[in-house]
Specification:
Chain lengths: 585, 188
């Protein structure tokens, strides 16, 4: 920088320096920070790492400012009388004149030279007062409330409450345990009228069925007469409910949240790949909730996807490798099952072998499946396309979670393009041995029973017992979505990772292990990696799009590795709301 | 850190050969042995012992009536005077239990039940008495006054499974307790 520029910079006041960057100077609890113009005070405090307690404010929803919990003290420089020039102190800021009464931090935006006090006598007494009013009619049934342990009312009552009630009168009685939708239960007594659920249904789910009825202390949340909260995004209202007024029917009374371990994962029910948290205790999954990722699913997730974890506990789970002998399956060891599977593959010509993989498999598994196809000398490897209707929110038309990954790894635009050729080969008898991974051929793949029975050697890997497994010579049990550490690429081309939350039951293994041992049985020179990280390493060195990626480099929010041009409708809607200034985002 | 040098105490010749102390000890034992022959030892009356020393002849004699008010025996669940099971399966005892002896599976009270408004009760409540250390934390943490440490102290079994008290057994030991705070009254 030249001397002149330095000299001008010294002359410039902090307000001018900030204005150049579109920022404003805000003093938060005595510290000056720069935040973007138009930021809400509550967000500015978040940047300054000061927590302002709040109930009704949610960054993805509009701010009605009705809980009054986020009251803070605000100050601005005194307005100069006409003709008077503002005076700046030694630090370049004007003196702040503190207002005698508080303002809500959630609905006010910051301004140049503004001061915010998140602590102090005024603010603390405000919070104590608001807490006292909120608790007047609260039933205090924490021992039976599912929200206990993650309840903001509990937390702030400890932090900012009085600890004792002065309320001598009878509490207002409201409806409890109300069935308002197939996934949601409402308890009106616990509700603190924050209206987050109402705003969510109106602004995000776009089905405004919730609203307030009655007045004053009798105000309660209700569904519109004749309507029910059956929207496929209804469970998000239970997530954002700061108290236990809305709870999930599926998770109701199953387990207290403080026992649950959180594992970061992603949803595998469609191509969007919503970021999730899997909540487990011991080896059991209790619930799946969305995890914030503003590039994938914002804060939300469809109900149908979050409730799709119960198959992990199914009685139909395959727990040991099975070998078919004289028409009946009997359980066996992995060594025996793998050698039996490999034996049937090795004795056939490359032309007679095909692999049907699944775009529900992870990148690592698909990579090993491709390697297996190469080792067998066949180019007949395909996934099964699974299309549905997009719901114009988070559910993608592509119901496979890893189609993009499969396309990148197989090196073709449409990884399922060879399925027809394989089906034709099987029915004509040209293909004699088939490996099926994670797919039931009688469903989307369009095979029929006679195709399966006509095969000489059918090896399949599944999580649950199904007709394809029943027709297989060798059945290899696999691991469910919560039971393996793996990476996937979503429809937008974002590489994401899922961690292992539970262990696969019985002798079932993570699928990459199965494929690696099958591969080493077919190709003797193949060295089985010690862990799935070794597979990612090999994958990253071979496929250009994955170059330099590892489990660690992906991070919790994933990385964009390719551009597919696909967008997620819900994110576009959210972007529009941010631009219109309705929400902070 | 400064080093502190500790010297061994200097023993006299008598102390060095030990016999003196041994005889001293034997003399005390003998004195008490003779005393018990001619009269009951201290505390024998309170414990209704045989008089041959303070030793209680278990199992012919038992602690039962001699236990203090605050005695912590087996933990058990109680019902109140309305015959309502007080436990709402909040699982705080399960959480606080230091040896992880408690296992609870909650369930919902069906809507046709008399106490449907309580909404929640345990489907399973098991205390593994092999693990239990009788610390009383479960009683202390209980927000519903549902679990108490009873004066019972004899827990026997021939199998490990015998030592696990299930819900039925816990209510049997606990019985009915009166005078508790009734949160789930008509106002609720």
């Amino acid at each position: 920088m030249s001397e002149d520029a330095t000299a001008t910079a010294e002359l410039k006041l902090p307000k001018d320096l900030a204005a150049e960057k579109g920022l404003v100077n805000v003093q938060i609890d005595g510290h000056w920070i720069q935040v973007p113009r138009g930021t809400r005070m509550i967000e500015a405090a978040k940047i300054a790492e000061k927590e302002i307690p709040h109930y009704c404010y949610h960054p993805k929803l509009s701010s009605p400012g009705n809980c009054r919990m986020c009251l803070v003290q605000m100050g601005m420089p005194p307005r100069p009388v006409p003709g008077e020039a503002p005076t700046f102190g030694d630090d370049g800021y004007q003196q702040i004149g503190w207002m005698p009464r508080p303002v809500i931090a959630c609905a006010n935006t910051v301004a140049e030279n503004m001061g915010i006090r998140t602590t102090g006598e005024l603010v603390e007494s405000c919070r104590e007062g608001v807490m006292e009013f909120l608790l007047i009619n609260h039933p205090l049934d924490c021992p039976i409330c599912d929200q206990a342990g993650e309840c903001k009312l509990q937390e702030f009552s400890v932090q900012h409450g009085r600890g004792q009630s002065r309320f001598q009168e009878t509490k207002i009685k409201k409806p409890k345990n109300v069935d308002i939708g197939k996934n949601i239960r409402l308890d009106d007594e616990r509700c603190i009228m924050c209206s987050r659920c109402i705003r969510f249904m109106e602004e995000v789910a776009e089905e405004p069925v919730l609203g307030f009825s009655q007045r004053g202390t009798h105000t309660s949340v209700t569904v519109h007469p004749g309507r029910r909260l059956d929207n496929n995004y209804a469970l998000n209202t239970a997530d954002i409910c700061p108290v236990g007024a809305l709870t999930s029917n599926d998770f109701r009374f199953q387990m207290r949240v403080w026992f649950l371990k959180e594992t970061k994962s992603i949803d595998l029910n469609c191509g969007t790949g919503c970021n999730t948290t899997i909540w487990t205790r011991a080896n059991e999954v209790f619930r799946v909730t969305p995890r914030q990722n503003n590039d994938v699913n914002s804060d939300w997730m469809p109900d149908s996807h979050r409730l799709a974890f119960h198959h992990l506990e199914s009685d139909a789970r395959l727990t040991a490798p099975l070998i078919q002998k004289d028409g009946a399956h009997s359980s066996s060891t992995w060594t025996e099952a793998i050698s039996k599977a490999a034996e049937g593959l090795n004795m056939r010509q490359p032309k007679e072998v095909a692999i049907i993989a699944s775009a529900r498999m992870s990148n690592e598994e698909l990579y090993l499946a491709k390697k297996l196809a190469d080792a067998l000398g066949t180019d007949l490897i395909s996934t099964v396309a699974r299309k549905g209707d997009s719901d114009s929110k988070l559910i993608s038309a592509d119901r496979n979670p890893n189609s993009t990954g499969a396309a990148l790894i197989f090196g073709n635009e449409d990884p399922s393009e060879k399925l027809d050729a394989i089906r034709e080969g099987v029915s004509s008898g040209r293909i004699k041995a088939l490996i099926v991974l994670q797919e039931d051929l009688l469903e989307e793949a369009g095979f029929d029973q006679s195709n399966l029975l006509g095969l000489e050697h059918l090896v399949s890997s599944h999580i649950l017992a199904n007709p394809t497994a029943a027709a297989s010579k060798v059945v290899l049990p696999g691991a469910g979505f919560a039971e393996k550490r793996a990476t996937y690429v979503n429809v937008t081309g974002r590489l994401q990772r899922a961690f292992q939350a539970t262990l696969a039951p019985g002798d079932a293994r993570e699928d990459w292990e199965t494929l690696a041992s099958l591969l080493s049985a077919v190709e003797k020179t193949f060295e089985t990696p010690a862990s799935v990280d070794g597979v990612i390493k090999a994958l990253a060195s071979e496929i250009p799009a994955f170059e330099g990626q590892s489990f660690g480099s992906i991070g919790d929010l994933g990385v964009q590795i390719t551009e597919t041009g696909v967008t997620i409708p819900l994110l576009e809607q959210e972007k529009a709301r941010v631009e219109s200034g309705l929400i902070n985002g | 850190m400064a080093t502190i040098k500790v010297n061994r105490p200097k023993l006299s010749a008598g102390e060095k050969i030990y016999f003196g102390s041994i005889f001293k000890g034997m003399a005390i034992t003998l004195r008490h042995a003779f005393k018990t022959l001619f009269g009951k030892s201290v505390g024998a009356d309170e414990l209704a012992s045989s008089g041959m020393g303070i030793t209680m002849q278990y199992p012919e004699q038992k602690w039962d009536e001699h236990l203090p008010e605050y005695y912590r025996g087996v933990p058990a669940l109680v019902t109140d005077e309305q015959q309502r099971e007080r436990c709402v399966s909040c699982q705080l005892c399960e959480f606080i239990c230091p040896p992880k002896a408690i296992k609870i599976i909650p369930s919902e009270i069906p809507s046709d039940d008399e106490w449907a408004k309580v909404e929640k009760r345990p489907k399973k409540f098991e205390i593994d008495m092999i693990r239990c250390i009788y610390c009383g934390m479960c009683e202390e943490v209980c927000p519903e006054q549902a679990i108490y440490l009873r004066p019972d102290y004899i827990v026997t079994g021939t199998k490990r499974s015998d030592m696990v008290h299930d819900k039925e057994r816990l209510y049997e030991i606990g019985g009915t307790r009166v005078g508790l705070v009734n949160k789930w009254n008509d106002l609720k």
